[in-house]
Amino acid sequence: MRILEEGEVKKGDELVLVEQSENRLTVKDFYQLLFMRKKDPSILQLALTNESLPEYKRERLKKYLPKT
Hints:
mainly alpha
């Protein structure tokens, strides 16, 4: 999910799915990445390849990649 236009949502407003993402990162998954100490590698990979997330957030998540 991505915000295309900032504003307030009121009862009765219509939400329209413009395009279905091929990346299956959910809001729940993203918040787990933010707040869980141990990061799930598969969810981390989904976040890093999700172009809906701002680049700076993806860059910050890279520090959790396993050291090679």
